[in-house]
Amino acid sequence: MFQIKLKNNKTFSCDKDSTIFEAAKKNNILLEHSCLSSRCRSCAVKVLSGKTINKEEELVLTEEDKNENFVLSCNAKPLSNIELDIEDLGEITLFEKKIIPSKISVIEKLTNDVIKVVLRLPPNSNFRFNSGQYVNIIKGNLTRSYSIANCSDHKNQLEFFIKNYENGLMSSYFFKEAKINHLLRLEGPIGTFFLRDSSFKNIVFLATGTGVAPIKSILEGLDKSHEQYQNKNLWLFVGARYQEYLFWEPNLKNLNIKYIPVLSRQVNDWNGEKGYVQDIVLKQQIDLENTQVYACGSNDMINSAKELFFKNNLKENNFFSDAFVQTN
Ligand SMILES: Cc1cc2nc3c(=O)[nH]c(=O)nc-3n(C[C@H](O)[C@H](O)[C@H](O)COP(=O)(O)OP(=O)(O)OC[C@H]3O[C@@H](n4cnc5c(N)ncnc54)[C@H](O)[C@@H]3O)c2cc1C
Ligand code: FES
Fold first, then answer.
1. pLDDT tens across 101-148, in order?
2. Residue 238 bridge partners (DSSP)
3. Beta partners for residue 49, in sequence order
4. CATH number for the domain including 211?
5. 251 in a domain, yes or no?
6. Ligand 2: distance of its center to the CA of 287 in Å?
7. Beta 157-163 vs 114-120: how paired, if at all?
8. Which atom of ligand 2 is nearest to the CA of 72?
9. Which has the closest alpha carbon to 197: 178, 222, 176?
10. What are the angstrom distances between the C-alpha of 14 and each of 6, 18, 19, 29, 32?
């Protein structure tokens, strides 16, 4: 048995055959995660002292990450006592993952390549999640991850924004075959992309493409408990290539949020911001030292935002992201 110590001095035991994540969970300590299969990087953590061995090759970590002693907690097993440069998620409740049936109740075209799909859950399903989490949608033997786009107060209707990936198997189902009342199974909730307690003055939300789904979920949840956020500055930056690809904008009753759409390719007929969302955040001159960032969408946007913001004083623990990497 080895001892694993976190930055906040919490300690747990881990045998040589368990991953750091598995051992933490067994000891009721929750660590940041998403895919639990070495694909998304959500669980990357810096090893401050001690040695680990990987279950499988860590393809999502760069050479630079590896040189700086980053490992994936869902993949790394201990070879000695270990000290990690992370804290756990604290008192957050993560609802147990389960598999439930659902039926399609809405299919609505939003753009040329994005549809909204609403799945109806059985009245007794008691499905609970934290706004921002995702589920696996299962169709026969095909499983793909999709973020829930409405908040946890869902009344047995879960909303999704689904993009048409060229030659994609699940895309082909949703865009060519799906019909009202088709039966699909859901597995979830999954992931740790949800709002954290924050004493920070600013909260920045960044989304590209269907990455607006979990951000919409979080914001709709926030709108219901807006009193706590009245003294904070909130920004939402949504990136798309062209104006016709912007399919959602916030329509919140109570929450005061500055919404800034950003187009990367359109040069004409657009008076708004042009370029990449992460660059436009910097242009707003937000005090990043006093900010939490929630980013969702492509891996490229997330990596580039992270690098840019860390260079501009954002603290490493204040960047939360969900990369829509390939699921299968
Ligand atoms: C945590 C998480 C949440 C997600 N949430 C959403 C969501 O809310 N809405 C949504 O539309 N998608 C979301 N995705 C992506 C989704 O899970 C699938 O990857 C996507 O729908 C494609 O599946 P497919 O079966 O159509 O394509 P596949 O048959 O798996 O692949 C077809 C082609 O598309 C490429 N491809 C597949 N997936 C991706 C990808 N994610 N990025 C780039 N290229 C890809 C493949 O390389 C291949 O060339 C999420 C992924 C993750 C990990
Ligand atoms: S890589 Fe570990 S949770 Fe995704």
1. 999 999 999 999 999 999 999 999 999 999 999 999 999 999 999 999
2. 207, 261
3. 83
4. 3.40.50.80
5. yes
6. 30
7. antiparallel
8. 2
9. 222
10. 13, 6, 8, 12, 17
* Residues paired with 12 in a beta bridge: 4
Residue type, 98: K
Q: Got the DSSP string for 169-223?
A: HHHHIIIII--TT-EEEEEEEE---SPPP---SEEEEEEEGGGHHHHHHHHHHHH
Best residue for ligand 2 mutational test, from 42, 56, 94 (most atoms within 8 Å of Cβ): 42
**pLDDT tens digits along 55-103:** 988 888 989 899 999 999 999 999 999 999 999 988 888 899 999 999 9
In a domain, 89, yes or no: no
* Tally of CA atoms within 13 A in the half-sphere of 168 that contains its CB: 17
Residue 32 is part of a domain; what is its CATH number?
3.10.20.30
Domains identified in the chain, total number: 3
Residue 276 is assigned to a structural domain of this protein: yes
**Token pair for 151:** 């908040």
Q: For residue 246, how far is its CA from the centre of ligand 1 (angstroms)?
A: 19
CB 56 within 8 A of CB 75: yes
CA of 326 to the centre of ligand 1 (A): 5
Instruction: Return d(Cα 131, Cα 217) in angstroms, integer.
Output: 5
Buried b / exposed e along 141-169 (16+ C-beta atoms within 10 A): eeebbbbbbbbbebeeebbbbbbbeeebe
Locus of tokens 């204040």: 318
Place of tokens 């994540």: 21
Measured between alpha carbons, how far is 328 from 325 in angstroms, rounded to an integer?
9
Question: E strand or H helix at 157, and its extent?
Answer: strand 157-163
